[in-house]
TrEMBL record:
Region (Disordered): 579-598, 637-672
SUPFAM superfamilies to which the protein is assigned, alphabetical: ARM repeat
Presence of keyword Cytoplasm: yes
Cellular compartment(s): Cytoplasm, Cytoskeleton, Cilium basal body; Cytoplasm, Cytoskeleton, Microtubule organizing center, Centrosome, Centriole
Domain (ARMC9 CTLH-like): residue spans on this chain: 65-196
Segments forming domain LisH: 459-578
Identification of the protein by name: LisH domain-containing protein ARMC9
Gene3D superfamilies: Leucine-rich Repeat Variant
GO CC aspect terms: centriole; ciliary basal body; ciliary tip
Protein source organism: Oryzias sinensis
UniProt keywords, alphabetically: Cell projection, Cilium biogenesis/degradation, Cytoplasm, Cytoskeleton
Length: 672
């Protein structure tokens, strides 16, 4: 064997030994003790070499010195030495990406900022404090800027504007020994974990690197697709600009014809060429006026334009068969739980899956005209009481049907005339498990009903504002979907004079909850939070409380965002806060009923179905038309009044009740 072949074989054996060593290292890391023994035995019997793991040395003296220096600088308040060591020894990717490290770093900056005031409680070193405040401001505007979206850290952004933080209610806890010891313990634990070498097996490291490479390939593919989309967008934008230019020229041409100037066929030919990218027939010669070819060219061009914008022809919509509602209501009350849920599902599907317009209105009018939910019933048991059923699936499907009613204008009117409805809904909201589908549908239903003033009055009287405020204190436990409806419901109630007065009874808590929500990562709630803040600040006692809480300083922290609409809303709120107006007259006129007159049948009504029909079991429309076919009970369409959609006051906060689906449509132009 040549020397070259010998060296090559040696490399292969070394690589194999290294690979086997990594496998053994991983097995030990995973505590596969019996597997390790068998692995060693087989390698030995086959004469395979297993390299020893490249062990990581334990913390050496240098590591201990670094940790001790950091803790010593913490105790001495030496921020320059501390952050120099911090920058050199803490991995930058952790500081930039890990939320826990970012939070620790934030509190360390707070600690070093107020250290001069803590170290000399009697003779406070104001000069040193002012210098550190300037450093803290710089940090807030750079590395700490993104934490302004987190409610936990938001109050500290007002620290630079508070002259005596040691006596301020929001900051006095920072000067207690317990706060310092807790922060130091957190720092010590973090340094112990961070400065020690990693024990991650090399095999896992290789796997991680492989995944990173795979993600890089996926990222490259995404970039390629993005470039393709950008090219299409740029072409679309260019076509749009071209169309605007042609439109402007045609307007000029029309004005010229009024003045008696002639338009040449060559000009028309050039316009058609630009408009249709030379797709017109070559036989269409516009340079010969009066010819059949020219007339056909005009006809072809105008036909193409009209065809591009012509709406589709409406199809004839069939009316759904009538049902026997007396039998339906009887089985909904007396039938088995399985039958009840199948009927509730079928009735909801008939309403939500019907075509918008005449078909859906006919279905709803049939439900209302036959008093499906028992508005006029004198019986003790009604369909509505299924919300109190011991069966969770029955309660869920009842809540989903009521939510479908509340999504339609006429349905909300019908529901608002059922005296016991709101009592049952609010009772269910407080009892049901949070984030269950039953709970979600009841919450959304209440929010939609809060568009009607009569329902707002009942909700306010039942202290729903207080309940919402308590729930929103722990907003991180709520899903983004439910948080939006929480905030929108609270705002609708706060827009009423009675609602504002209810907030004024516990103004400090309400203001704290609302200002904390401004920093929530879910920006969809902001219009409703801003609307609620603007509304309650019209009460003088609430404004006074807000000034004592330094709410203006907190609001100023948000004025630096890139979202100009949001910044303008914050300016409106600050202006309201500093106004000297007295409380306006009572304006809760019950005669002014609806503040919103639109259907809100959002896509959330079509969420997953727990109930699935068994083999051979009827469900949906087939169940209704097979077992409950009735005589002609379809009601004639009711004439609906048309009211403008709710608008905000220019760029200011919302000042009329809305529901999230309608507000999304107003702001994005989306349709459902």
């Amino acid at each position: 064997m040549s020397s070259t072949e010998t060296a090559k074989m040696g490399d292969i054996l070394a690589t194999e030994a290294d690979l086997l060593g990594m496998i053994k290292e991983y097995l030990k890391f995973g505590e596969f003790e019996e597997t390790v023994q068998i692995f060693d035995k087989e390698c030995k019997s086959k004469g395979k070499l297993v390299s020893k793991p490249r062990g990581n040395a334990l913390r050496d003296s240098k590591t201990r010195v670094i940790q001790e220096d950091l803790l010593s600088s913490f105790d001495d308040g030496d921020h320059k030495v501390f952050f120099e060591l911090w920058k050199e020894n803490i991995p930058s990717e952790g500081k930039d990406l890990d939320a826990e490290i970012q939070g620790l770093e934030f509190y360390l900056h707070v600690h070093f900022t107020i250290f001069p005031l803590r170290s000399h409680p009697v003779r406070q070193d104001r000069t040193e404090f002012e210098e550190r405040i300037s450093h803290f401001k710089q940090y807030l505007e750079t590395r700490g800027a993104e934490l302004s979206q987190n409610a936990e850290f938001l109050p500290y952004y007002a620290l630079p504007f508070v002259p005596f933080p040691a006596v301020h209610p929001s900051f006095k806890d920072l000067f207690k020994d317990t706060w310092i010891q807790q922060l130091k313990g957190r720092l010590d634990k973090f340094l112990t974990m961070t400065l020690k070498p990693s024990k991650t097996p090399r095999l896992m490291t290789l796997y991680y690197i492989s995944n990173v490479e795979k993600e890089n390939l996926q990222l490259a593919e995404s970039d390629r697709r993005l470039s393709s989309c950008l090219r299409k967008f740029n072409k679309m934008q260019a076509d749009y600009h071209n169309l605007i230019g042609i439109t402007a020229e045609l307007v000029d041409s029309l004005e010229a014809t009024i003045s008696g100037k002639m338009i040449s066929p060559e000009y028309l030919q050039s316009v058609y060429a630009r408009l249709f990218n030379n797709q017109m027939r070559q036989s269409s010669d516009f340079t010969r006026p009066g010819t059949v070819s020219t007339q056909y060219g005009f006809f072809q061009a105008s036909s193409m334009l009209r065809a591009s914008i012509a709406p589709p022809r409406p199809k004839e919509v069939p009316i759904l068969p009538s049902l026997d509602y007396e039998k339906l209501k009887k089985d909904l009350i007396e039938g088995s739980d399985r039958l009840k849920t199948l009927l509730l599902q079928a009735l909801r599907w008939r309403l939500t899956r019907s075509l918008p317009g005449e078909q859906r209105e006919t279905v709803l009018q049939a439900y209302i005209g036959n008093d499906l939910l028992g508005r006029y019933s004198t019986q003790q048991k009604t369909v509505l009481l299924l919300l109190r059923s011991p069966n969770e699936i029955v309660r869920q499907y009842m809540a989903r049907l009521i939510n479908a009613f509340a999504s339609l204008v006429e349905g909300r009117i019908y529901l608002s005339h059922i005296p016991v409805l709101l009592k049952i809904l609010m009772e269910t909201l407080r009892k049901e498990e949070k984030d269950s589908l039953t709970w979600e549908n009841v919450l959304v239903c209440l929010q939609k009903l809060s568009l009607r003033r009569s329902q707002q009055t009942i909700m306010i009287a039942d202290d729903l504002i207080g309940w919402l405020t308590d729930e929103l204190q722990d907003s991180d436990c709520l899903s983004d979907y439910t948080l939006v409806y929480y905030a929108a419901l609270l705002m609708n109630l706060c827009l009423r004079t009675k609602g504002k007065k209810k907030c004024a009874e516990n103004a400090k808590l309400v203001l704290k909850v609302l200002t904390d929500l401004l920093g929530h990562e879910n920006h969809e709630i902001r219009p409703y939070v801003n609307g609620a803040l603007y509304s309650i600040l019209s009460i003088p006692s609430v404004r006074q409380e807000a000034k004592e809480m330094s709410v203006e300083e907190i609001l100023h922290c948000y004025n630096k965002e890139k979202n100009q609409d949001f910044n303008r809303q914050i300016e409106f709120i600050i202006k309201q806060l500093n106004s000297a107006e007295e409380e306006g007259p009572e304006s809760d006129d019950e005669d002014e009923e609806d503040d919103n007159d639109e259907d809100l049948l959002e896509t959330d009504l079509y969420r997953e179905e727990l109930l699935q029909p068994e083999h051979g079991e009827l469900s949906g429309e087939s169940l209704l038309t097979t077992e409950y076919l009735g005589i002609m009970t379809n009601m004639a369409k009711a004439k609906r009044r048309s009211t403008p959609l709710p608008q905000s006051n220019g760029d200011g906060p919302l000042q009329r009740p809305v529901t999230p689906s309608s507000h999304r449509d107003l702001t994005t132009g989306a349709t459902i």
